[in-house]
Specification:
The structure is a homodimer of 321-residue chains. With 321 residues, chain A is α/β, with parallel strands linked by helices. Chain A has one domain: CofD-like domains (Rossmann fold). Helix content of chain A is 37%, strand content 19%. Chain A contains twelve helices and 14 strands. In chain A, the strands form four sheets. In chain A, strands 5-2-1-9-10-13-14 form a seven-stranded parallel sheet, sandwiched between helices. In chain A, strands 7-6-8 form a three-stranded antiparallel sheet. A two-stranded antiparallel sheet of chain A has the order 3-4. In chain A, a hairpin with a 2-residue loop joins strand 6 and strand 7. In chain A, helix 1 packs parallel to helix 2. The first copy, chain A, is globular. The interface between A and B is medium-sized, with 32 and 32 residues.
């Protein structure tokens, strides 16, 4: 059970499965590649929302009720900032703020985002390796009917109201994949690559847009298993379903699966959803995918790892144990 | 009563008298020149402790018990920062942090410290004009037996424990006085220049070290009145008395007065202190100088303004009303 697992994750949904995986395998066996396409500069601070979601989930600091940020959070800073006429459309909790201030300071001292993330994880006692997809800036932007919007402008300030017509990942073409990311995907000890139940368009595809990462996944020795972010035609959280409709896609787990065709060996849809039509070179399976508590996370992680053990790379005959 | 008043202030003690003056004259008639020698960069933030003390006092946001920072403060940020392995020797409250983040961001956008201070004062409804002594960096440093220390290292991290042998204000020689500072001191409508009860060595002398400011005070048309920071041989707050002893000075209000000889027309010592020996060209008067509440602040302000009305510039015959 010590063979390595690599998970690709966006924000909150992905972070839940990452947490489950961290309970299912030794910390040293798990590497998480995290989307940085929704990173941004705000109030002079470098904010990495998806890294923070993963880190807080792994450190046991995530707020379960709110669904983002830190537990036992307070909002005195935001309150004072409003009083000073500061920009207050992006909520920054008092505890959460420590992460942004500390990260920003360390980046300003010349460290890479990878180095800073590793340091902060170590301080929080996280043994899992959390890697930004790249140390270069990649910025997700969405085209609405009124033009291109920075992701957080769309996502937070405009609360996903604009219809999304197109997406782009500014900087991706020239971004260098974080070296450990590629090494982890190429490891001969790899047991599984897991695409977490994150938004395909703004969480996982920015990762796949970084040159070398998609190819490394395609060339990996281990099976690639994706978990649906869509259950019953709805996103568990966030704008994935709304985006699919706006982009002219069917809003279903099957449509997500088809989007991953050629990349993913096993697609896990929720047991409450009907099995979609067959997809060439992809195994479609059902499992309980809704993660309401830690047990759900661990159970889904075990399901995913069992599927990895029972699968071969695309096109190959499956082995069943 | 609409003639102008200029006050020179350091931190908490000075801010109290500034607050008193703001209650005694119209806001538009009061200009405060604030020490920035103890400004520093910390956690990537530009922190201006004395400006903040003055601003919080004028905005009614200062914490009366603690003696620094904001009232109703919380410390979740500091707690989280410790958890991340961040530098936690300088206490930053959650509300206070908004000031530093907002200031830093605006400075990074290219505004001067004066502009940012004016904006933040406006947001807080402060009508008094609060001016940094200079928009250029001046940094107070103290020489201890183990070498030169940055001021906040000495003042906060080492809690004023090292004996002070010498002081210097790095950058002062080439700093340009904030233009409105000089204009305010040269105003023909000036009624009084008040040296607040701040530490002479690290609060007022950095202001006086900025080229042009001392000369503008010397050349001003209005009397210069200083209020003692030493009562009964002790500083009301802070290391002034300890510093005087370490610098080989007598620890007394009289010694402070002698330090201001040639600059100050009227020196106000506390009514509990014995009148020192005469000082040429300086009038020595007693008043209640300890400010425990708002009434005390207002009463001392009225005393100072009355002394201004009853005094002429150095060497001239006094008029009494």
């Amino acid at each position: 059970m010590s063979a390595r697992v690599v998970a690709l994750s966006g924000g909150v949904g992905g972070a839940k499965l990452v947490h489950g995986l961290s309970l299912a395998v030794p910390a040293s066996a798990l590497t998480v590649i995290v989307n940085t396409g929704d990173d941004f500069e705000h109030l002079g601070l470098h904010i990495s929302p998806d890294i923070d979601s993963v880190v807080y989930a792994l450190a046991g600091l995530a707020d379960a009720q709110r669904g983002w940020g830190r537990a036992e959070e307070s909002w005195q800073f935001m309150h004072a900032l409003k009083g000073l006429g500061g920009a207050h459309w992006f909520q920054l909790g008092d505890r959460d703020l420590a992460m942004h201030v500390e990260r920003t300071q360390r980046l300003a001292q010349g460290r890479t985002l990878s180095e800073v993330t590793a340091q902060l994880c170590a301080a929080l006692g996280i043994g899992v390796r959390v890697l930004p997809m790249s140390d270069d800036a990649v910025r997700t932007q969405v085209r609405s009917d009124s033009g291109w919007l920075d992701f957080q402008d769309y996502f937070v300030r405009q609360q996903c109201r604009p219809a999304v017509r197109e997406l782009r990942f500014a900087g991706a073409a020239s971004a260098r994949a974080q070296p450990e990311v590629l090494a982890a995907l190429r490891s001969p000890e790899l047991r599984a690559i897991v695409l977490c139940p994150s938004n395909p368009f703004v969480s996982l595809e920015p990762i796949l847009a970084v040159p070398g990462i998609r190819a490394a996944i395609m060339g990996a020795s281990a099976p690639v298993i994706a978990v649906t972010p869509i259950i019953g035609g709805q996103a568990v959280k966030g704008p994935a379903a709304k985006m699919m409709a706006e982009l002219g896609l069917e809003v279903s787990a099957g449509a997500v699966a088809r989007r991953y065709q050629g990349l993913v060996d096993v697609f896990v849809l929720d047991s409450s959803d009907a099995m979609p039509a067959e997809i060439a070179r992809m195994r479609l399976v059902q499992a309980r995918t809704l993660m309401k508590n830690t047990d759900d996370r661990l159970q889904l992680a075990h399901s995913v790892l069992a599927l990895a053990n029972g699968s071969r790379r695309r096109g190959h005959a499956e082995t069943r144990r």
